[in-house]
Design brief:
- By secondary structure, the chain is of the alpha+beta class.
- The protein is built from 5 helices and 6 strands, in the order H-E-H-H-E-E-E-E-E-H-H.
- A 6-stranded antiparallel sheet has the order 1-6-5-4-3-2.
- The radius of gyration is 20 Å and the shape is elongated.
C-alpha cells in the first residue's frame, strides 16, 4: 500500500511539473514561409484563388478529385477556403478530431511584375503537456511542406507568363 501511495504521489508531482513547464510554452503557433515570384499578382492569384488550382502546386492534392473549389478532403483533413481577395486567401484545415489550423496566403506586389507570396498557418494549442511539446516540431514538419509547395507555385506561375 505504501508503495502504491508513493507511486501515485510521484506521478501527480511529475505530471504537475511537466504541465507547468508545458504551460510556459506558447498557446499559439504560427508557421510562416515566403517566396519571391517573378509573375504578376493576377497570375499568382489565378493559381491560389480556389482549390482546383491548388491541385497544380500542392503535392498532396495532385491525386485528389476536387469537385468543390472551396472545400476538399486531403488525407484526414478537410480544407476550406473562407475568403479570397486579390491580395489574400484565407482558409482553414480541420482535422477529424476537430483541431483547426487557420491558413493565410498573402500576395504582396513588389516591383517590376514581381510579387512576394507569404503563406502561414496558425494553430491554437491545448493546455495538455503532450500537445504543447509536440507543437515544437510544427515548424519542421509543416515548414518543409510549405517550402516545397511554394517552390511548385513559383515554377508554375513563372512559366505561365
Amino acid at each position: 500500500m505504501r508503495l502504491f501511495k508513493l507511486a501515485l504521489i510521484s506521478f501527480v508531482i511529475l505530471f504537475s511539473i511537466i504541465t507547468g513547464i508545458g504551460l510556459l510554452l506558447p498557446s499559439k503557433v504560427i508557421v510562416s514561409r515566403a517566396v519571391d515570384i517573378k509573375a504578376s499578382v493576377d497570375t499568382i492569384y489565378h493559381y491560389t484563388k480556389d482549390l482546383k488550382q491548388w491541385k497544380l502546386w500542392i503535392t498532396s492534392l495532385q491525386s485528389s478529385n476536387i469537385d468543390n473549389p472551396l472545400e476538399t478532403k486531403m488525407g484526414k483533413s478537410t480544407i476550406r477556403i473562407i475568403s479570397t481577395t486579390k491580395e489574400r486567401v484565407e482558409g482553414e484545415w480541420v482535422e477529424v478530431n476537430g483541431d483547426k489550423q487557420l491558413m493565410a496566403l498573402s500576395i504582396i506586389p513588389s516591383n517590376q511584375g514581381q510579387a512576394i507570396v507569404q503563406w502561414q498557418f496558425e494553430q491554437q494549442i491545448k493546455w495538455y503537456p503532450w500537445a504543447r511539446f509536440s507543437s515544437m516540431v510544427n515548424d519542421k514538419v509543416i515548414g518543409a511542406m510549405m517550402e516545397q509547395n511554394l517552390a511548385n507555385l513559383k515554377a508554375i506561375a513563372e512559366n505561365a507568363k
